[in-house]
Amino acid sequence: MQNVLKAALIVLTLLWGLPVAAEPWDLYRAADAYNANDYETALKLWRQLAEWGYADAQYSLGFMYKNGHAVTQDYVQAHKWYDIAVSNGSEIAAKERDKVANLMAPAQIAEAQRLAREWLKANQGK
Question: How would CATH label the architecture of 24-123?
């Protein structure tokens, strides 16, 4: 019995330090916040979801950076997030990535692609 309690305590201790996983319904909460012009909340929720691999959230981060909502407008970051969303199956992100690429210099596109590759390498299998 004492060993079971020790094991449970260890598991709880380990779990306590883990980040809380994003929930799929947070996509709706983020969209609601965005539509209410609460860009800070939308950004926070979409960033967390993007880190967990949700392509819709990754696309939305690209949109936020493209338009400068709650962040400084940054086409390199927009392209990066669109590229990441494309790698996770978002077809609309491919179209938006191509649109933002038309506003960028070739060196900026190369930088965005490099950042996307690095992000994907660091976050695959999360």
Answer: Alpha Horseshoe (1.25)
